[in-house]
Amino acid sequence: MASRGIKDQVAIVGMGCTPFGEHWDKSVEDMLVEASTEAYASAGIEQDDIDAYWFGTLGSGVSGLTLSRALKIDYKPVTRVENMCATGSEAFRNACYAVASGAYDMVAAVGVEKLKDNGMSGLTGTTIPDDGTKSALTAPAMFSLLAPAYADKYGVDETEMKDVLTRIAWKNHFNGARNPRAQFRKEVGKDTICNAPLIAGQLGIFDCSGVSDGAAAAIIVRAEDAHKYCENPLYVKALAFSAGPAAGPIDPDYDYTTFNEVVACAEDAYAQAGVENPRAEIAMAEVHDCFTPTELVLMEDLGFADRGLGWKEVLAGTYDLDGELPINPDGGLKSFGHPIGASGLRMLFECWLQLRQEAPEDRQIKSVTEAGKTLGMTHNLGGAPGECVSFVSIVGSELG
Amino acid sequence: MRGILGYSAYVPYYRLDRTEVTAALGTGGGRGTRSVAGYDEDATSMSVEASRGLLKSLGGAEKLTPNAVYFSSATPPYLDKTNATVIHAALNLPKHVFAGDVMGSARSVNAALRSALDSSKPTLVVASDVRSGRPGSSDEAALGDAAIAWMIGDDNDAPVIAEWIGGASSTAEFLDRWRQPEWNYSRVWEERFGEHAYLPLVTDAATAALKECNLEPSDIDHVIVAGMHARALRGAARAAGVADRPIADDLTTVIGNTGTPHAGLVLSSVLDKAGPGETIMVVHLADGCDVGFYRTTDAITSYEPAATVASQLEQHAMVDYNKFLTWRGFLDREPPRRPDPEPPYGPPAYRNESWKYGFVGSKDRSTGAVHLPPMRVSVKGGAVDEMDPIPMADVQAKVVTFTIDRLAYSLSPPTIAVVIDFDGGGRFQCQLTNADPDKVKIGDRVEMTFRRILTANGIHNYFWKARPVS
Question: B372, A144: Cβ pair inside 8 Å?
Fold first, then answer.
């Protein structure tokens, strides 16, 4: 038994991504049409060329009909998938396998979310009847549990910890300011971030990802067919997913300074892609920065920093746009926004732009343009510390 | 010999400074403080806390299982639905134990006590009120919140610490205090009238009780006078002919008058300090007068209450008047822009009764891993259905990490959430109550407390929270 992977078997030949934000004038259908038609045009294909669809949304619709109704798909398979905040990635992963299996020649992965119509602050969960004993913490509160545990374990004092978290938010706002599709396109000063009203624990409003509307789509074909549609496709090197026993909240062995699921699926992804030194080999990573402490912990879980030293790397600028390993060059969930079902595909969209050197000039990363690295990563998770699902993909602009 | 086998008083953690009422409204208030049930407490949850203390002092429900549980309150959280079943479930009592409510007026507690004293089986009687009044009213400042639990039984059940000697009652129909079920305050008649009606009833009951028990006033070591009519209470000892005997501190300057449990609360404070052979007279004015006599036994010296009334008066925090009004529903504050809170659903709560109410987890027989909530597959090793139930409500824990959730809906934001590891194994994530958000830290010691988490659709969600170890 092994996770064999499908390295270099399938390729992305077209992508689309709507701007993310408060789209008061756009419906779920509007955003699905815009992301899909952009992806079709990008690949130079017609909708009828697509053999099957994987459609991800957490709560903006149910069943494949949400997509087929919007696009008027003519009696093709449309599979709706949901895996919390990793929903968009899960649509992509399953779509890739369908092509790799030989079942279809060309498929689409489409993700969408409309969060702003419900008028609530932050994300709201789906109601499943229960006995009233489950924790009713909000998302920022759940992820803020990481900060004191990390600080306590590694001897980081409260002020230093706040500086680290602020640095992450500042960096992602800096990147998002250079992204015309991002929800928040302004740089934000560190003082503003640091002194913002608190939401949960040490986390202020700027430590939280943007609640937004948006959609994104990808067209996937067999690798050998890729050049029929695209001069410079992205090849899928690894697709890893991990759902664990959700033991963190019940097992005293879990210490709230790591995501075991991320460690497991990163290891799997590196093995699939043949990556031995991720920090050196990966040109960029889009990671799930739902809240700033998440990005900090992910740097260690993904092997981009040694245990207990991630906070120093953050402060040193290792992950800045012009740093050694740019993290979230598109602004991340923090600045690009987080329409759940679209986010995983949005991360892929930045790899699509950066690895093919199509990102706007002021956002292009030197690891690609100067160092010539060819691999990009997307990391997407759903749930909470100690009980999450995690996805890692590695894509590359070259075969082999 | 029949009487009190054990007792346990519960005074909630918060106090309101009565001068704050005067400062805010220009009227009402007064001097001293009153006790205030937390926003997550009600008469039922406080009764659970009092009863847990009682069972702890008696060595646990396995050692002395009551034959019945009577819950008495003038402020019951539910009508139509029995409240005592929540207490029964939270105490993990066997299904064959009867649980019923005796409620409506402050006198209800004497109905429950009489029934328990007349029985031949060990009986748990618990009484509690959460008392409010309209802003600026005398009731608002003068009343208080508390719970009291007794185990009544024979000395073949457990040592009797205070023998029931006997008593007598008088009853009359007159308008003293009343409240429609939907009102959140009471109304009272002009107080001189109540005094006029009550005092002869006190004289009648006291005279009859002394005669019944063959006692003289000089035999009495402690007189406890309780009831909700302050003016009548002031003349009651004289009317009972015992004005020259030691009158117990009625606790109203610090706690306020707690209504249904109040006579028991004062009795607890007396028993906390009493030696053997002391005779206690309880004079309770409520739609008549109930007078009873207890005499402490040698067993009183070895009885250890879970927490004395005095220790609970020391352990407290002040609540400001704005919060008090909010908690009591007199100040309807703007909620966060979040979904309405969800009530617990009937079938899952029914399936998970021992977890939700009793805080019983499961323990893997081979690895010892404790699961909260109980689970079928072990988190250590994956064994299936190899678990035993493990009650965790009385196990202490320490804080592993925590957060202050300022976004979540709460009647008293912010919500403090903690991840806690229990002594001997088991982890749980829950709310921390009775705590200052600025003072929580990793490593803090906590214990579990039974609370009303929220109310939605008229359904009270009872469950457990952590609180700092006192």
Answer: no
> Is the sign of the CA dihedral A44, A49, A52, A55 positive or negative?
positive
Task: Decide: helix, strand or coil at residue B427.
Answer: strand
For the domain made up of A139-208+235-396, the CATH class stated in words is: alpha beta
Question: To probe the interface with A, which of B86, B401, B453, B465 has the most A CB atoms within 10 Å?
Answer: B401
CA–CA distance, A353 with A15 (Å, rounded to integer): 9
Show the tokens assigned to B316. 């407290």
Query: Which among A194, A338, A351, A388 is annotated as catalytic?
Result: A338
Instruction: Name the class of domain A10-116+213-231.
Output: alpha beta
Pairs across A and B, CB distance < 8 A: 124
Q: How far apart are CA A134 and CA A143, in angstroms?
A: 16
| Three-state DSSP state, B326 | helix
Cβ distance A252 to B417 less than 8 Å, yes or no, reads no
A10-116+213-231 and A139-208+235-396 have identical folds: yes
pLDDT in tens, chain B (470 residues): 999 999 999 999 999 999 999 999 999 999 999 999 999 999 999 999 999 999 999 999 999 999 999 999 999 999 999 999 999 999 999 999 999 999 999 999 999 999 999 999 999 999 999 999 999 999 999 999 999 999 999 999 999 999 999 999 999 999 999 999 989 999 999 999 999 999 999 999 999 999 999 999 999 999 999 999 999 999 999 999 999 999 999 999 999 999 999 999 999 999 999 999 999 999 999 999 999 999 999 999 999 999 999 999 999 999 999 999 999 999 999 988 888 889 999 999 999 999 999 999 999 999 999 999 999 999 999 999 999 999 999 999 999 999 999 998 899 999 999 999 999 999 999 999 999 999 999 999 999 999 999 999 999 999 999 999 98
ipTM of the complex: 0.94
Cβ-based neighbours of B111, under 8 Å, separated by 6 or more: B72, B102
What is the chain A residue with the closest CA to B347? A131
Q: Hey, are the CB atoms on B406 and A199 less than 8 Å from each other? A: yes
Catalytic status, residue A230: no
- B2-327: CATH number: 3.40.47.10
Residue B463: which of A132, A146, A254 has the nearest Cβ? A132
Q: Closest by alpha carbon to B232, among B202, B269, B275, B262?
A: B202
- For A196, phi and psi rounded to 5 degrees? -70, 155
Whole-angstrom CA distances from B167 to A133, A289, B170, B213, B261 are 45, 71, 11, 7, 18
> Does the active-site annotation cover A85?
yes
Contact residues, chain A, for B369 at CB < 8 Å:
251
Coil, strand, or helix at residue B262?
A: helix
Residue-wise pLDDT for B148-171, tens only, equals: 999 999 999 999 999 999 999 999
Taking only the tens place, the pLDDT of each residue in A36-55 is: 999 999 999 999 999 999 99
Q: Measure A134 CA to nearest chain B CA, in Å.
A: 8
Q: Write down the domain spans for chain B.
A: 2-327, 346-358+393-468
The residue ranges of every structural domain in chain A are 10-116+213-231, 139-208+235-396
The answer to whether A382 and A125 are in contact (CB under 8 A) is no
Which residues numbered 420-449 in B keep a CB inside 8 Å of some CB on A?
Answer: 421, 425-430, 442
In which order are the strands placed within the sheet that holds B279-285?
B98-103, B68-73, B123-129, B146-154, B2-10, B162-171, B288-296, B279-285, B222-227
Fold topology of B346-358+393-468: OB fold (Dihydrolipoamide Acetyltransferase, E2P) (2.40.50)
Handedness of CA B96, B101, B106, B112 (dihedral sign): negative
DSSP letter string over A305-318?
Answer: S-TTTHHHHHHHTT
Grouping H, G, I as helix, E, B as strand and the rest as coil, residue A51 is: coil
